[in-house]
Amino acid sequence: IVHSRSLTELEILSPGVLGVTAGGKVAFLESLSSDSDRDASTTKILQAHGSEKAHVRKLSPHTLLLPGLIDTHVHAPQYAFTGTGYTLPLLNWLEKYTFPQEKRFASTTHAETLYPKAVSRSLRCGTTTAAWYGTLHVPATKILAQTCARLGQRAFVGKVCMDRNGGDGYVEENAADSLQTTQEFLDSFEKIESDRVKPIITPRFAISCTPELLRGLGDMAEKNSLPIQTHCSENAAECAFVQELFPESKNYVDVYAQHNLLNPRTILAHCVHLSDAERKALRKSGAGVSHCPVSNFGLDSGACDVRALLDEQCKVGLGTDVAGGWSMSIVEAMRSAIIASRVVGFGKREVAKIQDGHTTAHKTLSLAEVFYLATLGGAELLNIQQSTGNFMRGKEFDALVVDLDASTIGQGGKEELGTRTVEVFDHDDAAAMLEKFVFVSDDRNIREVYVAGSKVI
Ligand code: GUN
Ligand code: FE
To answer: Which of 78, 105, 117, 153 has the largest CB neighbor count within 10 A?
Structure first.
């Protein structure tokens, strides 16, 4: 059993015992000493918790029990064209591929066909919580929220707001119209049958919203204490255009601050090109960042300096940003976060060499850190750390059963090599298993997925 207690504390219980209540909450979590009689020790632990009658399930030695993964930024309508169009930079990609695809969700039939596929794929990849973007359309985005509820995913779902720069007609009439449809969308949540699916205020980004719309959404979020999601500082051309559209703002982050959209309930996707001043303002506001490394590679946006964000004590989680990102998998985002961090390090070394012939030490994100970002960090970013993110007692049991005995990750056990017997891969080494999970596993290794104690995969 592996989970993060904080950014710097990865806890590995090898083996461990985890109790789940009938209501789907974590009742207890204890480690077993590996040399004693495991069955006897388990019985003792159950007795100590008054759970002698509990149904006990033993997982095989090549299995990891992990907290559910949290995707803090993903676009459901973009699932269909995932993996195509990576020759264009962000703004051209939006106009050529994204807006025409999103327009199609004016049809509820289209939404009913595609949204179950997107949400199922996300769950299949082990995402127990997702912050989804829908489209401009209320009926289709309601279908997305209902789909999450029906398939059992914990989710935030946003109707996208845009009242300018929507390319060929992908735009709402005006700010008032966008605010009114957003209110309609919020009201529709009374009929959603899951208390784990919630609305989120979603101005697409500063470029696609007039100041009037941004301000209106900021006030609406404040009035209803709602979370907010948007994009920020993803690509250089985008940043330049924002400065042009908002000459009165000090910088990109300040645009959101000036329109009442920057607070502890705000999730800013990307934040690749922030200045030190912007990181400071972000931290002070309590807003956080959804780091989307796969997308930043896919759209050639840049490598986000997550270390700088963490050093500043900004909240950070991971996002797939499908279809900017080519994968619905937060595991792919974890390994890409490590690679992105290395790339940041390469750049810093080059600069240091030019400046003074020295290399500066750059601390690449560690495995434990990216695991935190994918789980507890995401929960903290979405302000749901009371319910999920790790296996602390009282939280809801959002979990993955990961089987690492599949042929894809290297078989365990011993192998005859001529006259020698070599250890191919030691399944008793939980830390190595976690490394395997992050670097070589895929959805085939994810055998079961639970949300609040209910099996959803
Ligand atoms: N910025 C504004 N809209 C989008 C989008 O759909 N995807 C990405 N990656 N960036 C955006
Ligand atoms: Fe995005």
So the answer is: 153
